């Protein structure tokens, strides 16, 4: 079941950034920070842990892409036992697998767990946006509205308003949906998203 649209390229870019640069960023911090030996030792320790996590993530992600029950279990175990960005990224991957299988409750749990592990605002925004889409698909408009309300990044506002409008429309609030779609059009968004928002706005205005 496809409930994710528009933001996929940005999501993939974020995941690639952490997969390719996450360890380097921490190592750079260790190298750049002088001071007490204990501090350097702790930073080095965190770097090693993150490096190990990155390697495990690659293995688990390959298993998960197979779609097997074993791959899903391995990913769930890794996500539960890891407390860093790779856990959050695994949660995103798990949610996609569950959504594709039509298991929206499983996708919601994977995203909720991932949100607790997300370390950056941008990652939190991605997860909240996808969580809102899942909650909307489950018919829980109030939960979807609560999730999109947590999205902070300016670049996500057009998509957030798109989902917000859908949630309000699901609740029967046509005027609220119209305002959300209008606000989405006034925010930064892709040409395709603007087309979708325009279509939705016209449909609400004419209904």
What features would you describe in this structure?
- The chain has 207 residues and is mainly α.
- The protein has one domain (11-204): Tetratricopeptide repeat domain (Serine Threonine Protein Phosphatase 5, Tetratricopeptide repeat), CATH 1.25.40.10.
- It contains ten helices and no strands.
- It has helices at 8-32, 37-65, 69-81, 85-100, 104-117, 121-137, 141-148, 157-170, 174-186, 191-206.
- Helix 8 (157-170) runs antiparallel to helix 9.
- The longest helix has 29 residues, at 37-65.
- The radius of gyration is 19 Å and the shape is elongated.
- Residues 1-6 and 21-45 have low confidence and may be disordered.
- The chain crosses the membrane at residues 23-42.
- One of its GO terms (molecular function) is protein-containing complex binding.
Descriptive labels:
207 residues; Serine Threonine Protein Phosphatase 5, Tetratricopeptide repeat; 80% helix; disordered N terminus; mainly alpha
In short:
This protein has one domain (11-204): Tetratricopeptide repeat domain (Serine Threonine Protein Phosphatase 5, Tetratricopeptide repeat), CATH 1.25.40.10. It has 10 helices and no strands. The protein has helices at residues 8-32, 37-65, 69-81, 85-100, 104-117, 121-137, 141-148, 157-170, 174-186, 191-206.
């Amino acid at each position: 079941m496809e409930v994710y649209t528009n933001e996929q390229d940005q999501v993939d870019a974020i995941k690639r950034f952490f997969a390719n640069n996450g360890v380097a960023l921490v190592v750079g911090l260790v190298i750049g920070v002088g001071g007490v030996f204990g501090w350097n030792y702790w930073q080095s320790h965190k770097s090693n842990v993150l490096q190990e996590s990155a390697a495990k993530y690659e293995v688990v992600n390959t298993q998960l892409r197979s779609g097997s029950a074993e791959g899903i279990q391995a990913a769930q175990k890794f996500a539960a036992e890891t407390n860093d960005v790779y856990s959050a990224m695994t949660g995103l991957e798990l949610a996609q697998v569950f959504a594709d299988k039509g298991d929206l409750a499983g996708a919601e749990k994977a995203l909720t767990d991932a949100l607790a592990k997300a370390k950056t605002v941008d990652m939190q925004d991605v997860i909240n946006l996808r969580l809102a889409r899942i909650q909307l698909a489950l018919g829980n408009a109030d939960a979807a509205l609560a999730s999109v309300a947590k999205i902070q990044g300016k670049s996500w506002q057009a998509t957030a308003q798109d989902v917000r409008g859908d949630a309000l429309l699901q609740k029967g609030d046509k005027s609220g949906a119209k305002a959300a779609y209008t606000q989405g059009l006034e925010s930064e968004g892709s040409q395709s998203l603007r087309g979708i928002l325009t279509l939705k706005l016209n449909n609400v205005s004419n209904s």
